[in-house]
TrEMBL record:
It is found in: Cell inner membrane. The keyword Ion transport applies. This is ABC transporter substrate-binding protein. The keyword Cell membrane applies. Keywords: Cell inner membrane, Cell membrane, Ion transport, Membrane, Transport. Pfam families: NMT1_2 (PF13379). SUPFAM superfamilies: Periplasmic binding protein-like II (SSF53850). It comes from Laspinema palackyanum D2a. Its main location: membrane. PANTHER family: ALIPHATIC SULFONATES-BINDING PROTEIN-RELATED (PTHR30024), BLL4572 PROTEIN (PTHR30024:SF43).
Amino acid sequence: MSQRVTGNHHSPESPRRREPLLNPVIAESQPEVASAIARFGGLDAVMASAYGVDPESGIQNIRPNRPFTRRKFLQQVTIAAALTVATNCANPDRKEADLSTGIPLEKTHLKIGFIPITCATPIIMSQPLGFYQKYGLNVELVKMENWQQVRDSAIAGELDAYHLLSPMPIAMTLGLGSQPFPIKLASIENINGQAIVLALKHQDKVKEAKDFRGLTIGIPFRYSMHNLLLRYYLASNNINPDREINIKQVPPSQAIELLKAGELDGFLMPDGNAQQAVYEKIGFIYLLTKDLWDGHPCCSFAASKPWIDKHPSTFRALNKAIIDGCNYARNPGNRREIAQVIAAPEYLNQPQSVLEAVLTGTFDDGLGNIRTVSDRIDFDPYPWKSFSYWITSQFARWGMVEAQNISHEAIADEVFLTGLARQLAKQLGQTPPTIILRDEQLKFGLFDPSEPDAYRQAQIQKHGF
């Protein structure tokens, strides 16, 4: 798989992205501000937290060689640092702090909404395994029924942060399905981790995509990778997902019962639901979404821009806890322990054996086969902006947004906090990627993020939809 930097994006090693003049200028004119910047983790960290600027993806509309814009930029950085001083140092005697850095936190008692599925593993396990406490946070996990409830609670300000399907921050920011609400995708919770499951009655009838004609297939939400990948699979095999099958939106918690009742012929849901269908002997695993796009994003950790602006240090500590938890979950040696803790009634409320089958990748497919796919689900928190480009190309393809209104680069830069995720991972001793875009290899072709509209148009031209 090739990797690239496209358009105005530059490697962090590029001289244009690392100007040595900035810090000395601030240090000479505002030494107390320079000190605050250092405490906060550096100039890039201030920029990312105060403005959502991703230093690795470029500062939009600012050319460093123009004196006026340079001065404006320095003024903005100074203001951001001053706000950091006011926020973090107004009460130097208070006890609440990120325990890993000692930086004071604006808020330590948090509510995070989640759907009880295996995709939420990092958010869930970080409570019983102590990752939130490690960063000075006391988190209440709020279990929710469906994605509409999470979205509406987020917009209403009832939550501090949330577990969201990876397309949802884009959809919410654009106002698709709800009023526009600015959401930042801080990190990816899981990659892969979904499957198409069919009722056992179809095991001798459905052998390939054309056999899906006339079936009713459940998905968890319109703005989900589940919906987009199901459409991608069917359309790539010349099946019109809007005319030749019935795609039905159902909460993950109801998928098993609806499959039992015959109201669904199958579903594309998180792997916990898929394995539960096998466990209850009502369905079989037809296809892992890993086989459609190995490394695709599934769910994400997110917070609103207003909340981040008000709680920059808390947000960094919280995101660091999630990234740290993801790194722990990536280790196969930790998967059984994780399955044990997230199986509890207050979390997923599923048999531990079901969750072990998902997390370890050794599983019964419902047809008498024991399969081993070690990365059936995995936990790589890095939010590649090429994920966003593919998602918005498919939003346009399926009429969820007008194609002429899509600026793939601007949306990715607005929603994905890729640079900040990299900074936090480095602070944790990890080695995240140094670029933000890569070619994505899917089952039926390569996605080049430098040409998302050409990709969409080629799909439509080839298949007619």
